[in-house]
What we know:
alpha/beta
Amino acid sequence: MAAADIPREKKVMYNFLGSSGLRVSNICLGCMTFGRNVTLGSPSQQDEDSSHQIMDRFVQWGGNFFDTADIYGPHFSEQIVGRWLERRERDNFVVATKCNFPVGVGRNRNSVGLSRRHMTASITGSLQRLHTNYVDIYQTHAWDAATNIEETLRTFDDLVRAEKVRYVGLCNVNGWQLQKIVDTTDRLGLNPVVSLQQQYSLVCRESELEPFQVCKANGIGVLPWSPLKGGLLTGKVKRGVKPSEGRLGYVANNISPHGRSFEVFPHYNNFTNKDFDVLETAQAIAEQKDKSVAQVAIRWLLQKDVTSSVIIGATSCAQLDDNMGAANGWSLSQSEMNNLDQVSSVAQFYPYSSINQANVHRNNPMARDYVVRSKV
C-alpha cells in the first residue's frame, strides 16, 4: 500500500500531550526493535534499512511521534533514529528518549540512576546519537530509590531551561511515587511533568487504580507501552500452549545474554485463564467488525480518556500497517467498550473496594476536575 493508498480518514489523529500544548499523533512508534539489542535479547530486531523503512511508513500514516531510549541496543536505536532524523525536517517530529539504566562498556559507579551527574551525561550522549540539539520529551525510565527526587526534578528543570529538553516525562512509577513527583514539582515551582509512559493493555490495567488517577487530577497524559502484551493480544497465543513465536516465544524459550532466564520479565509470562477470556472477547469483537484482534486492543486504549498516544512496536511495514489500522476511521461502540472493560476488570481489593463503595453516590465532576482546571 503506497502513501497515496492510505485514505485521509484512516490516518492518525492528533492529541495534545496531557495538559501541554504539544500535539502528538495518537499512535507513537516505539523504536526498541531497531538495531541489535544485546541488553534485552533479540527477537526480530531490525537492521538500519528496515528500521528506516518502518519509520518512513509511519510518517506516511501521518505519525509524528517516536519513542526510544539510551538502553535500547544499547545506543543502537538512538543512532538509527538519529541518522533518519538528520535527513528530515527536525521540527516536523516529536522525539522522546529516556535515561536511568547503566548503558554500554566502560561505565562506572555513577553511570546509572537519576542523579544530576548521570542525567546530564546521558542527555549529552542521547543528543549526539539522535543528531539533534534537543529532545521533545525526556523521560525517567524508572524510579531511582538512591537519588533524592528534588535532585532529579531540578536537573530536569535545568535541562528545559538550557533548551536541551522541551518537556519532562516519566515511565514506570507507582501511585505514591507519581504523587510525590507532582507535589515536589509544585512546591519548587519547576516545569511540570506532562506524560507518564506505563504498561497498559486489556490484560494489564492495574495502573488505573492509582497512577492514572493522579494523571487525571494533574493533566498528565498517559502513553501506554506493550499495548498487545508482547503479542498475546494479536491472537497468535493459544490457551494452555507455550508460546513459540515472536517476543513471547523468545522470552518463554531462551536465556538472556546475561545468563538469566527471561522469567525475570514476568509481564511477558504466566498468563491466566482470565487473560485468555479477555483475548477471546476481543477476538469476537474483531470478527464482528472485520478488524484484527490487535486493532481492537489498540482501539480500546485510544478510547480511554487518559490516553494521549499509544506506543506500538513493529518489525515490518506489514505489521505496522495492521496496527495503524486502529488509529482512525472507526470506533468501538459503548457496548463493546463495556464488554471489554468488564471481562478485563481489575479485582476490587481493599482499600479500593471500600473507597469505591463509600463513593458510589458521591460523583461530583466539578470537585474531581478542579485541580486540573486550576493549573491550566
